Amino acid sequence: MSDAPGPVGELLRHWRQRRNLSQLDLASRAGVSTRHLSYVETGRSQPTSGMILRLCDHLDVPLREQNRVLLAGGFAPAHPEHRLADPPMAEANTALEAILQAHLPYPALVVDRHWELISANDAAFDLLDGVDPALLEPPINVIRVSLHARGLAPRIVNLDEWRAALAVRLRREYDASADPALGELLDEVVADGVETAPGAAALVVPLQLRAGSDTVLSFISTTTVFGTPREVTLSELAIEAFYPADEATRKILNGV
């Protein structure tokens, strides 16, 4: 979506169509008449801020985009947004760092909505050994580093499978958010014709990373997000935690 918000009705229609809902579907979920929803979408009726938020909630519109729709309707944003360095974010930062440190000796990192690195524990940074230093200049995009020829790609044993898994995830995130930056990142990942259909990747795809001439570390990953956040930045952060996918990796990381 463009930076400049369009008419509020057009934005709401955009999100309804993106969620593959009919006017009747959305009206039933939100408890409004189909006629009223039609009037809102065509600009014949101006919705209140409460109505905008109700429709956005049923459309699962990201908080950042909810603020955009509110602005288009002539209302102030409902969801605050801070930089991570701002004082109101101190408790969240403390929680993030505690989670990263508690996950040692296994790798864990925090990324934003564009997969740019926010923070990581020492085990995650250890995996970046040998990556071109130019790729590690902020902002560091985790996906680009992992798939770049001067990044982790030469060390990923199952590179094609891992790339396909990332493509599927990016497709899902782009479909949910309509974020142009994610669309561009997805285009980069699928440039070589990688399949992004939901069934293209296995249910769980390990990251198999070569560490030395005869050692392969195998990881499965989980994603953690803040529950029911009402702040834009927090809603867009994710903790990527990696766990050993086999006993050999577990022993190596635990120094057994």
Any chance you could write out the topology, listing elements then pairs?
Blueprint (H helix, E strand, L loop, with lengths): L7 H11 L4 H8 L3 H9 L6 H10 L4 H10 L17 H13 L5 E4 L5 E4 L1 H5 L15 H6 L11 H19 L2 H10 L17 E4 L5 E9 L7 H4 L2 E7 L2 H7 L3
Antiparallel strand pairs: 1-2, 1-5, 3-4, 4-5
Helix pairs in contact: 1-3, 2-3, 9-10
Keywords:
Helix-turn-helix transcriptional regulator; five-stranded antiparallel sheet; 256 residues; Cro/C1-type_HTH; 434 Repressor (Amino-terminal Domain); MLTR_LBD; alpha+beta; 5 strands; Beta-Lactamase
Helix-strand makeup class: alpha+beta
CATH architectural grouping of the largest domain: 2-Layer Sandwich
Can you list the strand order of the major beta sheet? 2-1-5-4-3
Q: Which oligomeric state applies? A: single chain
* Overall tally of domains: 2
Would you list the SSEs in sequence order as H and E?
HHHHHHEEHHHHEEHEH
Say what the CATH topology of the largest domain is: Beta-Lactamase
What is the 3D form?
A: elongated
- Report the strand count: 5
Distance, first to last CA: 51 Å
Percentage of residues assigned to helices: 40-55%
Instruction: Show unreliable segments.
Output: none
* Share of residues in strands: 5-15%
Spatial extent as radius of gyration: 21 Å
Q: How can the largest sheet be summarized?
A: 5 strands, antiparallel
Mean pLDDT over all positions: 92
Structure in words:
It is a single chain. The protein has 256 residues and is α+β, with helices and mostly antiparallel strands. It folds into 2 domains: 8-72, 434 Repressor (Amino-terminal Domain) (Orthogonal Bundle), CATH 1.10.260.40; 87-158 and 206-253, Beta-Lactamase (2-Layer Sandwich). Helices cover 44% and strands 11% of the residues. It has 12 helices and 5 strands. A 5-stranded antiparallel β-sheet has the order 2-1-5-4-3. 28% of the residues are buried. The model has no long low-confidence stretch (mean pLDDT 92). It comes from Nocardioides bizhenqiangii. This is Helix-turn-helix transcriptional regulator. Residues 12-66 form the HTH cro/C1-type domain.
